[in-house]
Amino acid sequence: MSAAKIFAGEFTQDSLHNIYDEYISITSAIGVDRLSRTAFEQRLNSEVALIAGKAHEGTYRFSQYKEKLISKGAEKLPRVISIPTYRDRITLRALCNVLKKSFDSQLNVRLPQHTVSELRVGLANGNYNHFLKLDVSNFYPSIDHTILRTALKRKIRKTELHQLISSAIESPTVAFPDRSKPKSDRGVPQGLAISNILAEIYLSKFDTWAKNIPNVGYFRYVDDIFFLVKNDPVPLFESIKLRLFDQLGLKVHELGNSGKSVSGLVADKFHFLGYEFKHGKARVKIDSMHRIEASLAKILTTYKYKCAASQATANAFERSNLLAKAAKICAWRLNLRITGCLFDDVRRGWVFYFSQIDDEAIAQLHHLDKTLRVLARRFAFDPKDLKSFVRTFHESKRSNLSHRYIPNFDATSVAEQRDILEMYGMEGVATMTDVQVTRAFKRRIRKETSQLEQDIQGGSRG
């Protein structure tokens, strides 16, 4: 099907309403227009009609994006995330659907652990002696709009669709509304529904070239680029560096020991996507171990403070209920950190991410199980109902997650959703409709799963 026909189908009012119900209604971030979800829903019909009309006319223009800064650690510049308005969020999701369906045959969008799995196979076959890891400098901000538009024209001819994409990537990201801020002439804002798919389209021609280099294994996840080679990797590095700059306007850090672009023997220790490799074997990078341990300790610290607040309650019955509730929430959150979950058809969580470790590295999971129980005793929390990292690892290998050990929130009944919301103390759950319950539940799970992603970030790069 042509991109024009896909565009026509995605930008009907019915499709846009479905997008809002499925994706946008469970979000809560507010854009530069300061319009809340509740206020937006009061004008949803007119907003959807406006999107459909202006998109087909080629006159839709995106608002400025609201700036959100994400810390990358000490001595590093924060990552800039762009938050769209609710109207733009619907438009971007519909646009993402058009791009995915239009470029489906050319792109292979995957999870990072799938890339690690392929790397393990490449290491195991014994054909390579050296590795080469490239670090692209400021990838998203460096994407050239002219080159991107040329790549998009391979599948998209409809002028209105190109205008829509151009407006999306040219709209500036601001800390507060600023009409004097010029349009961006370079870069793709991070955090938009279309950001990753545009990045894949931008690098697709390079992928085709890299996969066809003789006697070389090529692996990439977004801008993390990795090669396995038989001989000295330095000439290959120079060739790749030149090609990325000449054809895509991308700069890579020079080879060195800074942890940026590096090369070495495959028998040596190296890191990729949060994994540590040595002698071809994969284990969890130490930074990632420390991050999940800190996450567990944070949940137990919250439990400690809730218990202290509960103890100050004079009524013994109420005090007992508050303590029991604090323990229940703590156990639920700890177990979610341990097992992860299935949500929006995606396996999420720390163990799922590190499912590609070798058997020898399962000792790291035993260590986490032991650490959790030590922490629980330190915070006076009974660990008897806590799950296990080791068992989660083995359960995660199943192709079907219909069992109960790892929660599947896509299959959670409305009654179970009500129980979880009531556990968290949401008021008025009993009087909410099933649709309202499901939306509130998805917002709650979205918040919890975003914290699961934080357990991975930071250690997952490099």
Please give a handful of descriptors for the protein shown.
four-stranded antiparallel beta sheet, three-stranded mixed beta sheet, 12 strands, globular, disordered C terminus
Overall geometry: globular
Q: What portion of residues is helical?
A: 40-55%
Q: What is the alpha-carbon Rg in Å? A: 24 Å
The structural class is alpha+beta
As residue ranges, the low-confidence spans are 458-462
> What's the β-strand tally?
12
Strand order of the largest sheet: 5-6-3-7
End-to-end Cα distance, whole Å, is 39 Å
Largest sheet: 4 strands, antiparallel
Q: Please state the oligomeric state of the protein chains shown.
A: single chain
- As a percent range, the share of strand residues is 5-15%
Report the average pLDDT across residues.
92
DSSP helix count? Answer: 18
Q: What order do the SSEs take from the amino end to the carboxyl end, as H and E? A: HHHHEEHHEHHHEHEEHEEEEHHEEHHHHH
